[in-house]
Every structure is written in structure tokens, then in C-alpha cells.
């Protein structure tokens, strides 16, 4: 029998099964970064997933990349998230806020201070960003000084503390998908010649320092870390598997393992040679979300010992009762791609439960 429905302890959390909700950007926060009034309903509807990992949430003004993404660094953010978290808890789920510093994946039009984006190096991602005036090329970012890197680590600590103050059960550090932490890790976005660039140890230094600082601030059992080895998103090119990707991520996971974090969350893009290496290097809970997997393969990695939890992404977006649908083999709602980002209730909290079509 599949282990998918077996309970599991993750950090301080007692989960009833091996599913969770993956972080998904929805761009529905108010302009000041406070979660939309509908956000509490959206996440609480999906409480049966047990562990909710929220959309990427910026730790500072500089950390914002997209329009209407939420923040967690001012009192109004804390107050807004508290309403969300309380409702999720009332519906029986745990919730981790994903801390996402976008780094160079930003546009001045989308940030409160309208300043140039920051990054490990002044290298553009050669991509466009949606703004209130339409799609615009992402400008070249400004290279961070060593002192500014330390300031950003402090911003992550403050955001983590703010998340806990809002009632969150923990935070997930977004080290994936081409955002700031991965910009440091990847050689093609990090051309630094100081202690934060060059060798593998130097390029993972920022990731480790952020994780260590946040773990010391709120407790390691309340910290998760997301990675996406080999992802080609937002201008990231991490090189070849044998010489670049595998040694980099094995070393990163080995160093994170020393911090005794609650979990690592792998966004898996098909590298089946690396996943066993990560599993071997990591002692605690491993979340694996395989991009494009069919429903019938949802439990495969768990049953094969390669992961402990299979997070659900877009299926959860369109199906608030996704756990019941999986258990009973009910058909799924189809996601409306036009309502993923921005807007109001439509495509957010109005997807029907099974039997209520």
C-alpha cells in the first residue's frame, strides 16, 4: 500500500498525510504588500493539504519583484497575514510563509521605492517583467556590496520573525527559480571575485548564511529551504550536470543538513541522477515536486524512498478539495490560466468543490 496517506512529523508539525500545498504566486496583495481580504479564504479552503506553503513573500522593499506580491516586514503586513494564518489554523492546517527576495527579477515600477534592483552581479536576466504599464524589459541590476549582503541577511531574519509574530508555523526560504539566493548559486548570474563568488563554497555562502541566520532567529525546526537544481528560469543557467549542478547542490544540501532545518523542498525538473544524491545528503524531511508529473505518479518518490512529501501545485489552485479528489479518484477542475495572477474572486476562491459544480 502507498505511503502517501501515512502520517509524518515535520519539525514541530504532525501531518496526517504526505501531501502539501506548493507556493504559487497569485499577485493579489494590496499595493502596500498586505494580503488581499480574499487570501484567508483562498488558503483556508485548501487546509486539507495539511501544510500550506504560501506564495513568495518579500522580506523588504528591495525584495519585491512582481506587482501586488505580499510582504512580511511591516506591522501592516503582520496584521494582514495574521488574519490569513488564523483562518488556516482554524481549518486544521499548518502554514509556512515563503520568503522570496526577487533580486534582479524585478522592475522599479513594481517596487515601493522605484529603485534599481539588486543582485550578486550587474547582469540582466534578459527577460521582461509585467508592470502596470504592460510588459517591460528588466533593467540591469546593481551589484551588492558585502555590507549590503549582510543587510539583506538581516532583512531575512526580520521577515522570519515577523512571520512568526503573525502566527506562522515557520518560513520557507526561496532558493529556487532564479531569484536572489539562486542568483548567488549560479555561475552565470554571479561573476563576483570576493568571498561570495567563484568556487562552489563561495557561491553557496549567501544561501547558507541566510539559512543559518534565520534558523538561529526562529528555530531550525521552523525553517524550510526550496531549491530547483538545473532550472532554466529567469535567465539562470547552472552549467552541466557532472561538473556544475551535481557538485554544487550536493555541497549545498550537505551544508544545509548541518543546520537541522525542518525540510528541503526540491522543485524537480527531471534530473533523476541528482535526486538520490540529495536524499543521501539530507537527514530530515524531503519534499519533492516533480514538474509535469501525472497524478498516477504522485506517490512514486515517497514509495521509492526518494522523498517524504509530494507537494501539490496547480492542481491545488483549481481544486480546493484536492485531497478528497485524490483519495476518491474524483475528476479535477480545469485551471483557468487567465485568472492565475491578479484580479478578485474569479479563479481564486470560486473553484467548486466536487459535487457542487
Total individual domains: 1
Total of DSSP H or I helical runs spanning 4+ residues:
11
Question: In sequence order, what are the helices and strands, one letter per element?
Answer: EEEHEHEEEEEHEHHHEHEHEHEHH
Largest sheet: 6 strands, parallel
**How many strand segments?**
14
Mean pLDDT value: 96
What fraction of the residues are assigned to beta strands by DSSP? Answer: 15-25%
Q: Give the name of the CATH superfamily.
A: Aldolase class I
What does this structure look like?
The strands form five sheets. A six-stranded parallel sheet has the order 4-5-10-11-12-13. It has a two-stranded antiparallel ribbon with strand order 1-2. Strand 1 (8-10) and strand 2 (13-15) form a beta hairpin. The chain is globular. Helix 7 packs parallel to helix 8 (274-281). It has helices spanning 39-45, 75-90, 146-165, 180-185, 200-203, 205-218, 241-257, 274-281, 300-303, 314-318, 322-328; strands at residues 8-10, 13-15, 19-21, 51-57, 94-99, 118-119, 128-131, 134-137, 142-143, 170-174, 223-227, 263-268, 285-290, 310-312. The mean pLDDT is 96. The longest helix is centred in the middle third of the chain and has 20 residues, at 146-165. The protein contains eleven helices and 14 strands.
Amino acid at each position: 500500500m502507498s505511503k502517501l496517506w501515512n502520517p509524518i512529523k515535520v519539525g514541530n508539525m504532525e501531518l496526517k498525510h504526505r501531501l502539501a500545498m506548493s507556493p504559487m504566486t497569485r499577485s493579489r496583495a494590496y499595493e502596500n504588500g498586505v494580503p488581499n481580504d480574499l487570501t484567508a479564504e483562498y488558503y483556508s479552503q485548501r487546509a486539507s493539504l495539511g501544510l500550506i506553503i504560501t506564495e513568495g513573500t518579500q522580506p523588504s522593499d528591495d525584495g519585491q519583484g512582481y506587482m501586488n506580491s505580499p510582504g512580511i516586514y511591516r506591522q501592516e503586513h503582520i496584521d494582514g497575514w495574521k488574519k490569513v494564518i488564523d483562518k488556516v489554523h482554524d481549518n486544521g492546517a499548518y502554514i509556512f510563509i515563503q520568503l522570496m527576495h526577487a533580486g534582479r527579477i524585478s522592475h522599479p515600477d513594481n517596487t515601493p521605492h522605484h529603485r534599481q534592483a539588486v543582485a550578486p552581479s550587474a547582469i540582466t536576466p534578459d527577460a521582461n517583467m509585467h508592470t502596470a504599464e504592460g510588459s517591460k524589459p528588466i533593467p540591469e541590476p546593481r551589484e551588492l556590496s558585502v555590507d549590503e549582503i549582510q543587510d539583506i541577511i538581516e532583512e531575512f531574519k526580520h521577515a522570519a520573525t515577523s512571520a512568526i509574530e503573525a502566527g506562522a508555523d515557520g518560513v520557507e526560504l526561496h532558493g529556487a527559480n532564479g531569484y536572489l539566493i539562486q542568483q548567488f548559486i549560479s555561475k552565470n548570474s554571479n561573476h563576483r571575485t570576493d568571498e561570495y563568488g567563484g568556487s562552489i563554497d563561495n557561491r553557496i555562502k549567501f544561501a547558507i548564511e541566510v539559512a543559518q541566520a534565520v534558523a538561529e532567529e526562529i528555530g531550525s525546526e521552523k525553517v524550510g529551504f526550496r531549491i530547483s537544481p538545473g532550472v532554466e528560469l529567469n535567465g539562470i543557467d547552472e552549467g552541466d550536470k557532472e561538473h556544475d549542478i551535481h557538485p554544487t547542490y550536493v555541497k549545498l544540501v550537505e551544508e544545509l543538513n548541518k543546520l537541522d532545518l525542518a525540510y528541503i523542498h526540491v522543485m524537480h525538473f527531471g534530473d533523476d541522477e541528482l535526486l538520490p544524491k540529495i536524499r543521501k545528503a539530507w537527514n530530515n524531511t524531503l519534499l519533492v515536486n516533480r514538474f509535469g508529473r501525472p497524478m498516477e505518479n504522485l506517490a512514486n518518490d515517497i514509495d521509492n524512498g526518494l522523498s517524504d512529501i509530494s507537494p501539490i501545485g496547480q492542481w491545488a489552485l483549481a481544486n480546493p478539495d484536492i485531497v478528497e479528489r485524490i483519495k476518491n479518484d474524483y475528476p479535477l477542475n480545469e485551471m483557468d490560466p487567465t485568472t492565475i495572477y491578479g484580479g478578485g474572486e474569479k479563479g481564486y476562491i470560486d473553484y467548486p468543490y466536487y459535487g457542487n459544480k
